[in-house]
Specification:
317 residues, Rossmann fold, globular, homodimer, four-stranded parallel β-sheet, 14 helices, alpha/beta, six-stranded mixed β-sheet
Chain lengths: 317, 317
């Protein structure tokens, strides 16, 4: 298919977004290493601007626009972190951002959009409603649509995360990242397939929202609507552009239950002293479920975000 | 007085402890910078081994012992993080650690001691009881006493924290650290008085445990017994060795109320995505109380620890 980003796009993305994002730290935990029997390197995108890796793709898309296109603003649909990230990047460039958000999006994520000056249009919490509402808005405004994951600029931007991880940590046997629509995993595949093709790539998915797992089993995209999981960033489905990468480069999709995700989130808070959102805990949860698979290995985990409503938090037991 | 550590001791400490500790990251938050009107650099010792800067002083003391002295073990009294840190460092060297802890010490901090193989002796929650109990134990075992702050090896070890901060961040106008017994502040004074004497040093203290504030006012050590604060690491009193540094090099002691401390802790969790314990939130709380004092300045804050009982947490409202 057209418009598949290349490694050159990743290199260009890195140069483009460097002024606007943090180079996030990589943390380790002796306790978790011993618990699992592996050496784990956590790339902490919860400490990224807007509290999530999504700042990377959003900045790459927005700062790559011509002045004429930028003047019409940008628009997207997103349940969460991409919404805040696009609003943040748009504010940096001084242009408008409009975000279609499902009515059940977390309050903190809506508040983030507003705090950066983004405009919210609410819709029903289905993929179809999100896309239809966005189409209407764009027909009206002419804004550039920056899809949360099905966009080559976004995938190239997200790829800069594993690029940094690879620069800082040698010889990773595996990298694990959560999978929702597949933007981060696609970027991870894009960068590693050039930089370190021997590194295995695992996608971590909630068992409650296992469309990617089913897709790998079926050998084609399987979509499931209205998936529900505490990992609210991972309820979306793959698209052909992300399936391109997932089908070619992902070794396996590993699953975790809702309780396992919350336990892993809580364990990370307690032992690593960082706030991560449920979606970010899925990779650790699947490692705990598959200790033998990772025994003695050097494993990178991408902690995708830390935007959780602490006042109404599923992990605070 | 005798036994005041020198800058050479700090350099030696750094070399001695480097294999055993993390070089912790320094984080920033655009949101907090804007809120306060300053540029703040958070040195994140909550991400240190054992979740607190105390790993530095403990490792320096223990790895500086002769083999003969080490063989008798080490002992201390501590309400918290020093206890875990000493047990951690002793385990690394393969020697015994005995810790006198007040009966009201947080459960998580007792659990930390046990997890590293340290032995706990409980006592009443007063300074006098702690010291008497420790004396008895040492008379029995001959263990080397590593006081949580009134020890030149510990002060030199804690000084390595601001040494790293100074290496990473130029031209700090001020550094703020919490003050309890004064070990960290003394180390901060020790290092900065050589490295950057123009940098002002502020001690941040709970108004409920304001012995250091009263000491500065009185021009001599004022002790207060059984101080109670949510910042459980800061209830101890100064000693002559820490007063030596505080009286010479600390510009001011700034106070925060219990609510202000919890609000600052919560704000840090939410905006910076890191877990900090109440004691660590006092510097941010005093900045919020004294915005004018820090306007336009470059300020380092030492986040001292992240060991908080999440299941029984005063900040989870």
């Amino acid at each position: 298919m057209d418009d598949i980003p290349t490694f050159d796009d990743v290199v260009a993305a890195r140069e483009r977004i460097t002024p606007y994002i943090h180079r996030t730290p990589i943390l380790t935990s002796s306790y978790l290493n011993q618990l699992i029997g592996a050496e784990i390197f956590f790339k902490c995108e919860n400490l990224q601007k807007v509290g999530a890796f999504k700042a990377r793709g959003a900045c790459n898309a927005i700062f790559g626009l011509s002045d004429a296109d930028a003047a019409k603003g940008v628009a997207t649909h997103s349940s969460g972190n991409h919404a805040g990230a696009l609003s943040f990047a748009a504010a940096l460039r001084g242009i408008d951002a409009t975000v279609v958000m499902p009515t059940n999006a977390p309050k903190t994520k809506k508040a983030a959009v507003r705090s950066y000056g983004g405009k919210i249009i609410e819709c029903e919490p289905t993929q179809a409603a999100r896309e239809a509402t966005l189409e209407q808005e764009v027909a009206r405004s002419g804004a550039d649509v920056v899809h949360p994951y099905d966009d080559p600029r976004v995938i190239a931007g997200q790829a800069t995360c594993v690029l940094e991880l690879h620069q800082d940590i040698d010889d990773l046997d595996a990298v694990i990242a959560p999978i929702g629509g597949g933007g981060l995993i696609s970027g991870t595949c894009l960068a590693l397939s050039t930089l370190s093709p021997q590194t295995k790539i695992y996608a971590a998915e909630p068992a409650n929202a296992d469309d990617a797992y089913r897709s790998i089993q079926a050998g084609e995209i399987v979509t499931r609507d209205a998936q529900q999981s505490v990992a609210d960033g991972l309820k979306t489905n793959l698209r052909p552009r992300t399936w391109h990468f997932v089908s070619r480069f992902v070794t396996d999709v590993l699953l975790a239950s809702e309780d396992e995700i919350l336990d892993a989130m809580y364990l990370t808070w307690e032992r690593m002293k960082i706030i991560i959102e449920p979606s970010s805990a899925v990779p650790l949860a699947v490692m705990l479920n598959n200790k033998k698979l990772f025994q003695g290995q050097r494993v990178g985990i991408i902690i995708t975000g830390g935007n959780v409503d602490l006042k109404n938090c599923p992990g605070c037991k």
